[in-house]
Design brief:
Elements lengths: L6 E7 L4 H11 L7 E7 L4 E7 L2 H4 L12 E7 L14 E5 L2 E11 L2 H10 L9 H15 L4 E2 L2 E2 L3 H13 L2 E8 L3 E6 L8 E5 L2 E5 L2 H6 L3 E5 L4 E6 L2 E6 L7 E2 L1 H6 L5 E2 L2 E2 H15 L6 E4 L5 H11 L7 E3 L12 H11 E3 L1 H4 L3 E6 L6 H12 L4 E6 L21 H4 L2 H8 L3 E4 L2 H9 L8 E2 L1 H4 L5
Parallel strand pairs: 16-25, 19-22, 22-23, 23-24
Antiparallel strand pairs: 1-4, 1-12, 2-3, 2-4, 5-6, 6-9, 7-8, 9-10, 10-14, 11-12, 11-13, 14-15, 17-18, 20-21
Helix pairs in contact: 3-4, 4-5, 8-9, 8-15, 10-12
């Protein structure tokens, strides 16, 4: 079992079919979370919400959009990082009270949510979930009331009171967060001061799009404008877009967005994801060359690095492994042994590519090592003469506390085993990881401006 995906958010403002566009955006972000999906929409007077457990295409049917009418919408796909896996924790969260309605969708993880939740409960707030995202919503409501928020024709006022409440709330929370927040008349996007989780801005007709990745803007036939900057809040109201810098930016984008999480057709903070993977593969070939006949990549996120490795090394790239597109992540095996066996259902080798060959196989990471061991078995069963395992990220030695569902430290094979021990454990003829500096060199070669990256899972040093 490897890293589990995080969450994806989408916001649409000023489109007559806002909920349908949001649906298309969520489908394109399905790789970021498969546990639940939801869409909230405003018709200018009230907010309507539908959410449920399951994939986007399972949750929403054509008839649902008859009830999800309006020109402002936000959506969410979830993989749990804080809070349990239940419908109560599905997003967006909607809070309706006498001053109006607020909906919120969150990608990330707070490190101080327990303390804030306790303070809110002491002051009378109630919660329907265990999610840190609901803490953000209730904190905004509390700040709005404290600031003297008033009833205005049944809607939250289109003035500074609500915007100030959001600003105060996001300055109080700590951790990683990319937020979409919606009232009856406005849409707000917020990115944490480190920019750990991605968020970008696009245009659709006379309206705007917010999304976790640029591929979602493409799916909505929109035009990518730019990334939301770390520490920036954008407010879209009355067809006008306003930018507020609520905190000093110290950019440290999650480095695993480029290794694994993001779709290869996305661009995050000016770096094309697929190009970054090519470059990581090239650096890996420079650092750990080996005599071999073919190079293959583990679908899907290992393919770009494998192509880069092949290009740099001169060893031919072949497909080698195929992935069952229909297994999804809805199959829940009850035991660890059965979960490991599912690798044989998910992946299979192409014998004609591998039989009698010395094979270099490129994967994006090794977490527990169980998938890697099964993968080597698959390749040997297909007749590979030698299997040389190469990894396009450094050894993962520390869990993530900022929005990725990772195992505990003692379950991470690189935190408890040396390189040769891992090689023996997975059964490869040789094993090498890219160096952290090599990875940084690859990423920095893809952009003009200086970038900072969160490397906590490799170094144990976190930006928060």
């Amino acid at each position: 079992m490897g890293f589990r995906d995080e969450c994806g958010v989408v916001g649409v403002y000023g489109a007559p079919n806002a909920s349908a566009l949001t649906y298309f955006g969520l489908v394109s972000l399905q790789h970021r979370g498969q546990e639940s999906a939801g869409i909230a929409v405003s018709d200018g007077n009230k907010l309507t919400l539908k959410k449920a457990l399951g994939l986007v295409t399972d949750v929403f049917k054509t008839s649902d959009f008859e009830n999800l009418k309006g020109n402002i919408a936000l959506g969410h796909v979830r993989y749990a990082t804080a809070g349990g896996r239940s419908i109560d924790n599905a997003q967006p969260f909607l809070n309706t009270f006498k001053l109006g309605s607020i909906a919120l969708a969150h990608n990330g993880q707070l490190v101080n949510h327990a303390k804030i939740r306790e303070e809110l409960e002491d002051n009378g707030s109630t919660f329907s979930s265990t999610s840190d995202s609901e803490v953000i919503l209730k904190l905004i409501v509390r700040k709005f009331i404290e600031n003297g928020g008033k009833l205005g024709s049944g809607k939250i006022h289109q003035n500074e009171t609500f915007i100030n409440a959001v600003t105060q709330a996001v300055n109080q929370i700590k951790g990683s967060f990319s937020l979409c927040i919606m009232t009856e008349t406005m849409l707000i996007g917020v990115r944490d001061p480190n920019g750990i989780r991605p968020l970008c801005l696009g245009k659709t007709g006379s309206g705007y799009i917010l999304a976790s990745e640029s591929c979602a803007i493409d799916a909505m036939n929109g035009e990518f404008i730019r990334d939301i900057a770390p520490g920036e809040m954008v407010v879209i109201i009355e067809d006008q877009l306003r930018s507020i810098n609520f905190a000093k930016p110290e950019k440290q984008t999650c480095i695993f967005e480029y290794v694994y999480f993001a779709r290869p057709d996305s661009v995050i903070d000016g770096i094309a994801v697929q190009n970054a993977r090519y470059k990581m593969g090239e650096e890996l070939a420079k650092e750990s060359s080996v005599q071999a006949d073919v190079v293959i990549g583990v679908p899907d996120s290992g393919i770009g690095a494998a192509m880069g490795y092949a290009r740099q090394s001169g060893i031919p790239y072949v497909t080698g492994i195929v992935k069952n597109k229909y297994i999804g992540r809805t199959f829940i095996a009850p035991t660890q042994k059965e979960r490991e066996a599912m690798v044989f259902v998910k992946l299979n080798a192409i014998k004609s590519d591998l039989a009698g060959k010395r094979v270099v196989v490129i994967d994006d990471s090794i977490v527990r090592g169980t998938t890697s061991r099964r993968l080597v078995e698959i390749l040997r069963r297909a007749g590979a003469k030698e299997v040389h395992f190469r990894v396009s990220s450094p050894p993962v030695k520390f869990p993530c506390h900022l929005g990725i569902d990772t195992p505990s430290k003692n379950e991470l094979i690189s935190s408890t085993h040396e390189l040769e021990e891992i090689r023996c454990e997975i059964g490869a003829d040789s094993l090498a990881f890219i160096s952290l500096q090599g990875m940084l060199n690859a990423l920095c070669s893809c952009c003009d401006s200086a970038h900072g990256f969160c490397k906590g899972c490799f170094s144990g040093e976190y930006p928060v």
